[in-house]
Amino acid sequence: MQMGETCEVFSFNDKLLGHGAYSPNSQIRVRMWNFIQEEKIDNNFFLSKIIYANEFRNELFQRRTNAYRVFNSESDGIPGLIVDKYNDFLVVQFLSAGAEFWKNEIIRILISNFNPKGIYERSDSSVMKLEGLEIKCGVVYGDEPPEYVIIDEGQFKFLVDIKNGHKTGFYLDQKINRNILSKYSKDKEVLNCFSYTGGFTIAALKGGAKIITNLDSSKSCLDVINKNIELNSLEKNKSENIECDVFHKLREYRDIDKKFDLIILDPPKFIDSKANLISAARGYKDINYYAFQLLRNGGVLFTFSCSGLLSTELFQKIVFDACLDAVREGIILENLYQSPDHTISLNFPEARYLKGLVVKVL
Ligand code: SAH
Fold it and tell me: Which of 75, 219, 294, 302 could form a Cys-Cys staple with 351, CB 3.0–4.6 A?
């Protein structure tokens, strides 16, 4: 049997349970497509899943944005398939043997239903190794994406580098949180840690922030912030970029007694296996501890973790611990999650990875 091919799955007493994709190299030997005996796995199966997923996003966003996750893997019924829409380009990831097996059919479905200018593959996730798949990036249909594709989120516009950006180019998962942050920003002195290309920077400036400092270790990401400021017709002199290690910079600020009204902590994933949960927890504790020390009385912390292996409960405990050690008192104003286009199926709760808290310090 070929890798990714559809197989029937039987119970111990020979009852047909459903169909799945055979994955000889993975610990998960078969990823189930369905639990329906009569349903065939063919073009129509994939077509109906993709159409349904997109219709529901259109209802959700009322077409007020031209950038969203069209399809989110297990939670939309095709394990291993990610489709992100950036204006008139689609970015696809085929991360499982089954998704890879059906790749040509899926691309055909995307072309005929979205009529994109181009489809770009970014199958470059580390999980592919476990599945025995090779990394693949490049144009799979139509035009090559330009250096930057401009996306419109309604309130904000952003430049997205589809070919080289993080993930598939941009942090679409923070979409709803950008809107929330904007409301907390008026007249505030803001510190945006792990800023990437300035998703939160633009949201803060649009919300009327007095001044914002962006910290990131990547100069090329910081440079895009200035371009995004221009794109949104915002004032350049209200934003400053510092290329640095956030861990060091926060300590430095503490040592000189620097203060802010609003701090954002949106670090990269610290945990990729259960084995490094403890050291990662220390990392989260560290940055939150310093952030609490840098906030003025009445200040607000937006703190996130995108590590799926860290539970919401444990994350909250870490933030509490950091607050306690900083000798501050905090109240949770809001619980934050990934945007709803990053769906979480009830039968796949592991899909919930992004969590955040808005904490006001007294
Ligand atoms: N908040 C961003 C996404 C953050 S992604 C958004 O909403 O778009 C994490 C960012 O942290 C990346 O841009 C990466 O370059 C940066 N980074 C990773 N480790 C860092 C460190 N130790 N110090 C500073 N920046 C770091």
Answer: 75
Over residues 199-230, the pLDDT tens digits come to 999 999 999 999 999 999 999 999 999 999 99
Query: What SS3 class is residue 158?
Result: strand
Probe residue for ligand 1, chosen from 160, 182, 194 as the CB with the greatest number of ligand atoms within 8 Å: 194
Tokens representing 213 are 């400092």
Same domain membership, residue 186 and residue 120 = no
For ligand 1, whether the C-beta of 199 sits within 6 Å is yes
Question: What three-state secondary structure class fits 2?
Answer: coil
Same structural domain for residues 30 and 156? yes
Which of 168, 177, 226 lies closest to 197, judged by CA?
226
Q: Does residue 185 sit in the same domain as residue 253?
A: yes
6/26 same-domain check: yes
Whether ligand 1 lies within 6 angstroms of the CB of 243 is answered as no
In terms of domains, do 147 and 226 share one?
A: no
pLDDT single digits (tens) 321-330: 999 999 999 9
Integer Cα distance of 34 and 50 in angstroms: 15
Q: How far does residue 219's CA lie from ligand 1's centre (Å)?
A: 11
Report the DSSP pairing between strands 30-34 and 16-22: antiparallel
198 lines ligand 1 (CB under 6 A): no
Please provide the size of the chain in residues: 362
Is the distance from the beta carbon of residue 156 to the nearest atom of ligand 1 less than 6 Å? no
What pTM, to 2 d.p., does this model score?
0.96
| Residue nearest atom 9 of ligand 1, based on CA coordinates | 268
Residues 231 and 339 in one domain: yes
CATH of the domain at 139: 3.30.750.80
Do 10 and 155 lie in one domain? The reply is yes
CA–centroid distance, 240 to ligand 1, in Å, is 16
pLDDT, tens only, 40-81 = 999 999 999 999 999 999 999 988 999 999 999 999 999 999
Q: Rounded CA gap, 46 and 68, in Å?
A: 19
